[in-house]
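[recover] target loaded
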């Protein structure tokens, strides 16, 4: 959920943001990369309880 929120903020900044918002784009890219790495690690090294990868 957090990764999806970060992606939406990045899309807003890329396609609709300007001025001082575009200056923070580099920081948000790093946050996105770190979030994706953490998500991938959590997906790969998830617990053995249950066989489903989704939570609904």
């Amino acid at each position: 959920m957090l990764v999806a929120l970060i992606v939406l903020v990045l899309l807003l900044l890329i396609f609709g943001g300007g001025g001082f918002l575009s200056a923070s784009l580099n920081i948000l890219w790093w946050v996105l990369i770190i979030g994706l790495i953490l998500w991938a690690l959590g997906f790969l090294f998830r617990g053995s309880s249950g066989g489903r990868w989704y939570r609904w």
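[recover] notes: Residues 1 and 40 are 13 Å apart (CA to CA).
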